[in-house]
Design brief:
heterodimer, A: 344 residues, alpha+beta, Butyryl-CoA Dehydrogenase, subunit A, domain 3, 8-stranded mixed beta sheet, B: Butyryl-Coa Dehydrogenase, subunit A, domain 1, 4-stranded mixed beta sheet, 4-stranded antiparallel beta sheet
Chain lengths: 344, 375
């Protein structure tokens, strides 16, 4: 066992941090700077990060989920408003189904609460759905159940709109929309394929949450050092210090479980990978909400205004938490893995 | 980046698992039953003799000279087998390794590692808890000895101890942090009086009060130089804050495993709130295991002990107290006079946010020394 990042993984982390540091939004106003967002999108496209889970010649992904998680964490930390989570999960579905990589950006559509992949039947969506992280995507992948397994199918997308998460727009999909299965050569996905896919999705959202926690905490720490009341920096007050210390500790614990979840995707059985991911998601989702709330509180009145970045972190965390299940559903999964059913 | 076992680690794990199959003493938990202490010394020696103790310590003192990650494997396998955790003496070993001279190391470390000698740690006093440096116990030179007068409290395992790692004031005239020194004091002598303390869960072996009335310790038993006591104490408490050093992961996992077994065997007895508490205990205990893996891997880079120990201590505290809440939720408060193990585990868990430095002190350290907040 040696859970340190390899030199190549450290280089990947540094390069992702550099791109987001230079081109990501540093203020709420910069979220509306289309030229900046286009430069970030071009940089993310050029880096090839969205293709890490596409199939190589042997059908295996180009890089492990650890590499994907390293990118996800840095994008979360820098509030990157370029698509990554959705396209990476779509690429994984195509890889598992054995169909060629999409030539344009595509994402995935989830059920309205975001807890699972959306499903279709009879050529249409079974119910309303939401395509997440849909910036630049013209289509989204869903499942079509067929006997014991599932086919992957696609649905065309109208333009995405900014909703809860100001950095990752989504598309609400009407249940009447038509879905088309992906080619004749597509393999059926087994239950194990879907477990593996879900484990990847949970691991990537955990990494994004760790990144959001780091970013929110840095923002709050900086503010506590410069904001003065009673003639001193508010960061000198023990009440404020203890909130920030708790946030830091929650982030560090989250980091440990998130790293393990990312490793487990490729190293453990699908069943055990999903269990590791559920432990991580329960922990990270609970921690992220608390850390982002702390960031808002430390900013005081300013933290409750639209122009403070603190709520942008919280909003991003709310989306990442809900994708494939937040603290509650993940805890239920953890208990089921330990043979305890029906916990809610 | 690999949480998995190397071939050597796999072989070690298999050997340990086989050994535990026939050598698990089945002791009750130290936190809930004084009977644990009657068997602890034998358990320590049994682990040591089989080569499963002191995995990461130098071979010269009886350790195995392996990377720290072997400690995690030991903890995982002890928990899986439902065996008692490994005795927590790592902080003593690290403190003496870092501050003792060759004579001290040779005389004391092998006995600590092989379990022949039992030790306690005499730091806190009735008027010196979080403000440890204000302690009043005096050590005055008298010929070749120092004479000790004072009172220590919250002294873990004091009534079983052969030796005390004693922090005392050797120079009352200098600033409070600078006048302290550390001694290896023999406990079995006339000037030492024991008073066991009863903890809120009823156990009496965990903590004691020790009165020193003219107790003597040879000057050659001073560990480090005169006045080095504060630095040594800080080395020790930083190790005492590390779950990897303490082996508590095994203790938490053992409780969680037992609670899970109970819920699985009679699911209809437990409501959603109780089961949720168990779920969080599972998550927290697993988090701590993985966090220890990360910290021990960092040590492969030679990263030494700094304020990160306070982060680890807080995470360990949250884990222990989540396990305590689950033990209370699933085990119940035993109002009917039935099995009160769950209640005892819960009550014991409240001490974790105090011992080894309160959670409030740890937050001060994280805020000031890691986050750089002004004081």
């Amino acid at each position: 066992m040696d859970v340190r990042l390899s030199p190549e993984q450290q280089a990947l982390r540094d390069s992702a941090a550099r791109v987001v540091g230079e081109l990501g939004p540093r203020t709420v106003a910069q979220l509306d700077d289309a030229a900046r967002a286009a430069r970030l999108e071009a940089a993310v496209a050029a880096a090839g990060w969205r293709e890490v889970r596409t199939a190589g010649d042997d059908g295996m992904p180009c890089a492990s989920a650890v590499e994907a998680a390293i990118v996800a964490e840095e994008l979360g930390r820098g509030l990157a408003d370029a698509a990554f989570l959705g396209p990476t999960l779509a690429a994984e579905l195509r890889r598992l189904a054995g169909v060629p990589t999409s030539t344009s950006i595509e994402t995935v559509a989830l059920v309205p609460g975001l807890g699972a992949l959306a499903a279709g039947s009879g050529g249409r969506l079974s119910e309303a759905a939401v395509a997440i992280d849909a910036a630049g995507s013209r289509s989204a992948l869903v499942l079509v159940r067929a006997g014991e397994g599932c086919h992957v199918a696609e649905v065309a997308l109208p333009d995405a709109q900014v909703r809860v998460d100001l950095t990752r727009p989504s598309v609400a999909l009407d249940s009447r929309l038509t879905v088309a299965t992906l080619g004749q050569k597509a393999r059926m996905l087994s239950g194990e394929d879907l477990e593996r896919w879900t484990a990847l999705g949970l691991a990537l959202t955990c990494a994004d949450l760790v990144g959001a926690m780091r970013g929110a905490l840095e923002l709050a720490r900086e503010y506590a050092s410069v904001r003065r009341q009673f003639g001193v920096a508010v960061g000198s007050f023990q009440a404020v210090q203890h909130m920030l210390a708790d946030a830091f500790v929650a982030m560090e614990g989250s980091r440990s479980v998130a790293l393990h979840a990312a490793w487990a995707v490729g190293a453990l059985s699908p069943h055990d990978a999903l269990a590791a991911a559920a432990v991580a998601k329960a922990y990270c989702a609970r921690a992220a909400r608390s850390v982002c709330e702390t960031a808002i509180q430390v900013h005081g009145g300013i933290g409750n205004t639209w122009d403070c970045l603190a709520h942008v972190y919280l909003r991003r965390a709310l989306l990442s938490s809900d994708v494939l299940g937040g603290a509650g559903p993940s805890l239920t999964r953890v208990l089921e893995h330990h043979g305890i059913q029906g916990a809610s | 980046m690999d949480f998995g076992d190397s071939p050597a680690e796999t072989a070690f794990r298999r050997r340990l698992r086989e050994w535990l199959g026939t050598n698990n003493p089945g002791l009750p938990a130290s936190s809930t039953d004084d009977a644990y202490w009657a068997g602890q010394a034998r358990w320590h020696r049994s682990l040591y003799d089989a080569g499963f103790f002191g995995m990461s310590w130098p071979k010269e003192i009886g350790g195995q000279g392996l990377p720290s990650v072997y400690e995690v494997i030991v903890d995982e396998e002890l928990a899986a087998a439902g065996a008692p955790p490994r005795p927590s003496v790592g902080y003593l070993v690290q403190g003496i390794l870092e501050h003792g001279n060759d004579d001290i190391k040779q005389r004391f470390l092998p006995g600590i590692v092989n379990g022949r000698d039992r030790w306690c740690q005499g730091f806190s006093e009735p008027d010196a808890g979080s403000d440890l440096a204000s302690l009043l116990t005096r050590a005055e030179r008298d010929g070749d000895d120092y004479v000790i007068n004072g009172r220590k409290i919250w002294t873990s395992y004091s009534d079983d101890a052969d030796w005390c790692l004693l922090l005392a004031r050797t120079d009352p005239l200098v600033a409070k942090h600078r006048g302290l020194s550390v001694f290896a004091l023999p406990m079995r002598q006339p000037g030492v009086e024991q008073r066991p303390l009863r903890m809120i869960n009823g156990i009496t072996k965990e903590f004691g009060e020790v009165l020193f009335d003219g107790a003597r310790v040879p000057a050659g038993n001073m560990i480090g130089k005169p006045g080095e006591g504060w630095a040594l104490a800080m080395t020790i408490v930083s190790h005492e804050r590390e779950p990897g050093e303490l082996g508590y992961v095994a203790r938490y996992k053992k409780v969680v495993k037992e609670l899970t077994r109970r819920v699985r065997s009679e699911p209809s007895r437990f409501g959603p709130e109780q089961v949720r508490d168990l779920g969080w205990a599972i998550v927290e205990a697993e988090m701590l295991r993985l966090h220890v893996c990360r910290r021990l891997s960092d040590r492969l880079d030679g990263i030494s002990h700094g304020p990160e120990g306070s982060v680890d201590k807080l995470l360990m505290t949250y884990a222990e107290q989540a396990v305590g809440h689950a033990a209370l939720a699933i085990g119940g408060a035993a109002h009917d006079g039935g099995d009160d193990t769950g209640l005892k585990v819960y009550l014991y868990s409240r001490a974790q946010s105090v011992m080894g430095g309160t959670s409030q002190i740890q937050r001060n350290l994280v805020a000031r020394r890691i986050l750089g907040m002004p004081s």
